[in-house]
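WARN no homologs supplied; continuing
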Amino acid sequence: TTIIVAHFGQYLSTNRDLIDRFIHLAEHHDNLILDTSGVVLPWKITEAVTRIGSDRIAFGIDGPHPYPNLSEYAREECQKIQTLPISDVDKENLYWNTIVRVLKLS
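OK structure emitted
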C-alpha cells in the first residue's frame, strides 16, 4: 500500500524537526510518498529530493484555496518548484511522473 503524506507532514509548517521526521520516515519506508502542497520551507523539498529521490515526492496545491484565489495559489506553488535547485528530470518527477506512477495512470 502506498501512503501519501500531504504537506511533508503538516500544512504551512515551519517546524524543521517535524519535516525532518517525515523525510526520515520516507527514507525507511519505500511506500511513503511526500506531497509538496503547503510546504513553506522549500529547501526541505530540495533536501528530500537528495535524501529519498524525486520519484518519491509529488506536487500538490491543496485547493480550493481562498488566497487570493485557487489559480494564483497554484501559480505560486508551481513557482516554488520551478525555483528549486534541482534538475529538470527531478521537477518532471515532482510535477507528474511520481503521481502518474502511484495512481497507475499510464
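DSSP finds four helices and three strands in the chain.
OK
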